[in-house]
Amino acid sequence: MEYFLHILILINIYIIIALSLNLIAGYTGLLSLAHASFYGIGAYATALMWLYLGTGFWLNIFVGIFLSAVFGIIVAFPSLRMYDDYFAIATFGFQMIMFSIFNNWVDFTKGPLGIPGIPSPSVFGHAINTHIGYFFLTLFFAAITYWLVRRLVNSPFGLVLKGIREDEIFTKAAGKNVTKYKILVFVIGGALASVAGALYAHYISYIDPTSFTINESIFMISIVIIGGMASLNGSILGAVVLVILPEALRFIGLPNSVAANLRQIFYGLLLVLFMMFRPKGFIGEYAIRKK
Questions:
Q1: Which residue range is the domain that position 198 belongs to?
Q2: Over the stretch 6-29, which tens digit does the pLDDT of each residue have?
Q3: What is the pLDDT of residue 257?
Q4: What sign does the CA torsion over 22, 165, 78, 97 have?
Q5: Is residue 239 domain-resident?
Q6: Average pLDDT taken over every residue of the chain
Q7: Alpha-carbon gap, residue 291 to 288, rounded angstroms
Q8: Beta partners for residue 222, in sequence order
Q9: Does residue 275 form part of some domain?
Q10: How many domains does the chain have?
Q11: pLDDT tens figures, 190-201
Q12: What does 202-267 look like in DSSP terms, one character per residue?
């Protein structure tokens, strides 16, 4: 039962990530490879706030959101002057910078040793220290994220995002400040990813840089592409599929090192097959592949 709840908790966390990334990549058409860095900022913010200041979950999560928003603005200004593949390369660079900070600033982040003993979050004075409690906590945040992103994409703001994706020049000609909208969506997406990072840190109670690598960013993109670009329900479906299916490898009896490599091969193969034969994903609105 606890293992089943563990899988559901991970699905809820990745639903938050997928919804936030779909807002950037799916609705706006900005292929970002830096999403794991914002995920890591949220995780490290909550862990370091607890470690050095002894603050609680709710304050820490808001600090993570604020820091992700600040870093989102910093990376968005230079990166959004670039287009298509160049933008992806710029975000890849930011991802590598943040990983280097997590990994090499040993005096502050503890580097490869990681930060153990992160306490359980507390809600109304009650510690969430059971799987069922954490499932409902992550489900609550996933539902709030879904509601927020749905409101955004169905608003005039969302229409501008779709306009940028479909024809940026025409959107500019219509009098919209495209750069402002791109920065806003990048900041919102990064802030939401930081929430998932904070939840992950408190749930696992330990973080290290290996959880926030470029491989993790590619996995997040895979969820969005396979579930469906510009589809909120696709984000949920993609998270469910890519979290559950690889778990079947645990029951084959393979060593952990072999199973981990096979899991990466599985992700890559699945992504290639969808790009070739179903570029819209399961229930996507549009294909990432250019016509």
A1: 2-213
A2: 999 999 999 999 999 999 999 998
A3: 66
A4: positive
A5: no
A6: 90
A7: 9
A8: none
A9: no
A10: 1
A11: 999 999 999 999
A12: HHHSEE-GGGGSHHHHHHHHHHHHHH-TT-HHHHHHHHHHHHHGGGGGGGTT--HHHHHHHHHHHH
Q: Is residue 232 part of a domain?
A: no
pLDDT of residue 286: 76
Does residue 233 belong to any structural domain of this protein? no
Q: What is the DSSP string of 99-155?
A: HHHHHH-HHHH-GGG-EE-PPPPEETTEE--SHHHHHHHHHHHHHHHHHHHHHHHTS
What count of residues does the chain have? 291
Higher pLDDT, 264 or 147: 147
For helices 214-227 and 85-104, give the axis angle rounded to 10 degrees.
140
Q: Is 83 helix (H, G, I), strand (E, B) or coil?
A: coil
Query: What CA–CA distance (Å, rounded) separates 142 from 5?
Result: 15
Strands 115-116 and 126-127: unpaired
125's tokens: 């004075």
Q: pLDDT tens across 175-229, in order?
A: 999 989 999 999 999 999 999 999 999 999 999 999 999 989 999 999 999 999 9
Q: Count CB atoms within 10 A of the CB of residue 58.
A: 13
pTM of the full structure:
0.94
